[in-house]
Hints:
Layout: H1 5-15, H2 19-46, H3 53-64, E1 69-71, H4 72-79, H5 83-95, E2 99-103, E3 111-115, H6 117-135, H7 142-158
Antiparallel strand pairs: 1-3, 2-3
Helix pairs in contact: 1-2, 2-6, 3-6, 4-5
Amino acid sequence: xxxxxxxxxxxxxxxxxxxxxxxxxxxxxxxxxxxxxxxxxxxxxxxxxxxxxxxxxxxxxxxxxxxxxxxxxxxxxxxxxxxxxxxxxxxxxxxxxxxxxxxxxxxxxxxxxxxxxxxxxxxxxxxxxxxxxxxxxxxxxxxxxxxxxxxxxxxxxxxxxx
Length: 162
């Protein structure tokens, strides 16, 4: 069996004398590799729905909103992404008939985005697949998932994420 490349990187860091940074490098590199693993799994499940995770998140945000719609700016804030990224996702989702765009009824500068019936059905089918293939089987025991969530929540809070 091959050796863990991140463990090898730790040895290289320590050999260079970077002992104080070695464990942090391992942590950061491990999280980034874990993100790649999760992203690949999510991408595989969402591919039949012609969705990226960003577009899926937007559909679900709209699905969970009380009216099924919200201003583009609010969606950008909720998903913590630049408005340009939301606009790009809306363009793609609108072209696929999954969302619609309309002028805001009381703010002439704002645009409302709304999930369509087809978009809602697609989002729910994609969620069922993600729940079965990824979210329900993250690759860790329930106890370790809870620990991971708590650790990452601390990291996000410390970074000012919320």
